[in-house]
Write a structure and sequence with these properties.
Elements (H helix, E strand, L loop, with lengths): L5 H11 L2 H14 L1 H18 L3 H49 L8 H42 L1 H48 L1 H6 L3 H26 L2 H25 L5 H41 L20 E8 L9 E8 L4 E5 L6 H8 L7 E6 L2 E2 L5 H7 E4 L8 E2 H5 L8 H11 L2 H7 L5 E2 L8 H14 L4 E5 L7 H13 L3 E5 L4 H5 L2 E6 L2 E5 L1 H7 L1 H14 L1
Parallel strand pairs: 3-10, 3-11, 6-9, 9-10
Antiparallel strand pairs: 1-2, 1-4, 4-5, 7-8, 11-12
Helix pairs in contact: 1-4, 1-10, 2-4, 3-4, 3-5, 3-10, 4-5, 5-6, 5-10, 6-8, 6-9, 6-10, 9-10, 14-16, 19-20
Amino acid sequence: MRLNQPGIALVFRQLRGSPRPLAWILLWSVVESLPALVSGLAVSRAVDHFLADDAGLGLGYLALLLGTAAIGAAGTRQLFPWLAAVIEPVRDAFLTAVVRGAVTDETRTVDTAAVARLGEQVQAVREVLFVTLRVVRQIVFTVVAALVGLALLSPVAALLSGACATLALTLFALQLPDLAERHRAVLLAEEEVARRASATVEGVRDAIACGAVDRAADEVGSATDAAVGNERRLVRRTALRTAIVFLGAQLPLLVLLAAAPWLLREGQLTAGGLVGAITYLTVGLEPALRRLVEAVATWGLEMAVTIVRLGEGFTDPQPERDLVPAPARHDLEVSGLTFAYGAHAAPVVRDLDLVLPEGGHLAVVGPSGIGKSTLANLIVGLLPPQGGRVRLGGVDICDIRRGDLRRQLGLIPQEAYVFAGTLRENLTYLAPRAGDRAVTEAADEIGLTPLLERLGGLDARVGAGGVELSAGEKQLIALTRVFLSPAPVVILDEATSSLDPVAEARAEMAFARRQGSLLVIAHRLSSAVRADQVLLLDGDTACLGSHDELVRSSALYADLVGHWDLSRA
């Protein structure tokens, strides 16, 4: 496992950016390990004084041990804020990197395994990093403190224990690559279960219709069986850590007990010293080494493998190539555009030619599922075409810098998103320098003013996803947000579907008056009536013209208009 892999590199980069919290963690770790350092010495002195009939001084050493325990507890309490100061930025950095890796690569198809990486694995990194810094750090300091205390008490016992612990940890380190591979196999198997289960749930109606329920169940079951098998192999391998603990901590104890008569007879140890040495081995070294091996073999490897797996999501960022800034012109030209959702699927868009002049107003209509939203995603570069080009101002959108392209094209989908925060923060997200006057004027243009008044103004807070708002109110917020943005080309992908016809007309006409171009994926035929040009999609063919021209020339369009007129009546 290379340290230069993106995920691991990101962890080290984040840790290097937190020198002050790490310094405080080091300081309080030393304080926390004081009981482990003092325990054997205090017990040794106490026993010797009790044997010499000096109970007062013996009790004093036990009181000293209790005092160091209180100091260690205080050190532990002080650690938690500094642990959070290190761990939370790492979690945020991974979340940002995974999301950015998923959304910046427009050629990447939807991957349900990415949901597992985002929902489970990022959280796993956070939890395991906490365990590593909280538990493994504490164990390491405890082991070092116990060996230092044992060296002060009995150099011979410390040398033996240190040699055995070093040998045990070396053997354990040699097993780590194999354990890491087994952890990775478990992780990939879990992702495969998530991928197959998601595909099965999405296609359950098709599976029932085709009589393929048993096959679908077998596919999910085989993935589950493989995941269980990988888990079992991992458990069997990790069971070897018992031998490591015996070699590193229990063997020195057995040797010490076997040599105790000689050590006492030769004056190498007093009775209290022997009890103190046993205290270091049984209370300090053995539990700490057992927990260290267990933590590294489980949490540590889980974190390392998960970090590497997450890093694969942002290993190869899109190269900038020779991308150019956004052009000064904003006319859109589509030529020979073709797109299909699979290698053997019929194209949703086929050889489409289209021009939206700067300042133009175009409506796209057609039966449900004909490919209108697909066309919108192709125009803004969210889907890669299999053929043809989309040009903005005469420049292929694939050659425009991603950030510049996003600032030129404003897409509002049907499902409007509202961020947790104030209304002002929601509305000015794409125009952070917009003042209150510009915001209220935009809200009045779109028709958002009644909602502002009902909620109490721009400083009113809304929850994540706008759970307290209706679908129409969320759409009005999204419309106002893009209205305020500097985007010269706006695409409304059924962005007014939850508004009534009057509110929809008001919002669309506001965008039509706004400087720039407007493309409307129509939810109602009234959007086509208001547009300068109408594009009718009908499977393999597409017709372009004004509303009146298409009524006369296209039977499908006339039929759609007839149904719309009947519904209005």
